[in-house]
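Journal club side-thread
Mid-discussion, someone asked how the predicted structure for our own chain would compare to the paper's figures. Pasting it here so we can look after the session.
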Amino acid sequence: MTSKSMVESLVEEVLAEIGSGDEKLREEIEKDLKKMLDYGVPPEQVKNTLLNKYSKEVEKKIGDLAGDEKKVGLIARVLSLNHRNVVVRGEEEKTVYFGFLEDETGTCSYSIWQEPNFQKGDVIKIKNAYATEWQDAKRINIRNVEDVSKTDVEIEIKREVKEVKIKDVKTAGGRIKVAGKLLSMREFDNDGQKVFRGTICDETGCSLIVFWKDFKVKENDCVSLENVYVSRPSQISVGEESEVKRIEKEIKVPEIPLSELVINFNNITTRGRVFDVVKGEVTRGIITDGKISIPFTSWKELDIGDGDVLLIKRCGVRRYMDSMRLNLDKDATIKKIEDKTLAQVRIEEKVSRIAEIENSGTVEGFMIDIKEPSGLLKRCTECNRVLKDDYCFVHGKIENPRIDLRVKGLIDDGSDCAILILNRALTEELMNKKMEDYEKEAKKAMSMDVVLKDLEKLLFNLYRVSGFFKQDEIGRTLIATKIEPIDIPVKEEAEKLLAERGESI
């Protein structure tokens, strides 16, 4: 049976998202919810089903989408239609169809998991769709092919093409004209269709670029692009209707500040000061420009040390732990340089400062609280979520959960505080005790809470922590990659204080 608290919580979430407090509707939702949960339907799927059933459809224009609509309708022209085969849940291969839509107010991407009943160029009416946001771009997700129909509605698209510099691409709307140098180009096969992705720059900055057909341009070409559009901030999309021309003008490649990097930039030039350098066959560390700090990896041994300022050419930006990593492969060139401004930059920052930029850094602070769930806990074998009463919010009852060890604490450095997450390895290292030993203690005490008493020893101690900051609706979180206790010289500090007062211990 499903717990009463879970049912009440899900009902409240559904009512809140559809914006209703009607008691009769509450009873209907609760009845449907209990029925689906008792049949073993995962809670997240139950919630989405109920939102789909009880939400009222809202007609919108593309430019008015918020990216979180549960039930939305719109009329738009199909700009492009592509498809690719993907493996779902590691087993079944399915075909997803995707592309871009446009109306008088803008463009957005779309996807549908059934063979479409429309073609490129058709004006279609979509109902019962839901909207999401990915990388600051809106997407329409079409649930069923029956929710789409062709229409004779006229859509008047203003074909005004604005000429912009690349630094203004992220804020440009509609069709644009831009010129730049192709720093990188990679070809991808999309079920027989050639797609080309890369990085383009002018003297003002860089942007990602995708060509949806082969325009016979290559890396290092300088090109003029007309009638292209911005599919998401920092990405230019070049379609079949676009005009692409090589130009003779040489475009100077600028340095891109670390704080302006975007995941998947390639062959760019940047500079920064490095810290926490670990050398070997692969060299790792943190690089900063004073505004942002990100990890870097070099696939060869580098003769560098903490505090060096580097000028790096032909490097790339990759995704790492939902953040960025600077990738220095074999083609990258690294040079130590003099830079008075960067020479003064330190990686140690306050919690409030680093949390704003959502990236890596190092702080020193006191552990002021241990939060639940900490210590020994159970995780879902499917999605790794922490379980409550052996129950996964997505996959339901888990018969043989995975045991894990972690600390979820609160660290305060005087400027602000953040939730601190230590994984099993860091917790074992800090406590000087293995998870298996804690499991034996918990079994003997017949309670996993026995570990919490041991973790209380961490409270009000000073630590130096390196890791990755994230900020969401819950607050600021520091996911640690390294933690070191800092001994507080209590006697020396006391002697110093008394000496200032003319006293002694």
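Post-session note: Residues 4-56 form one domain.
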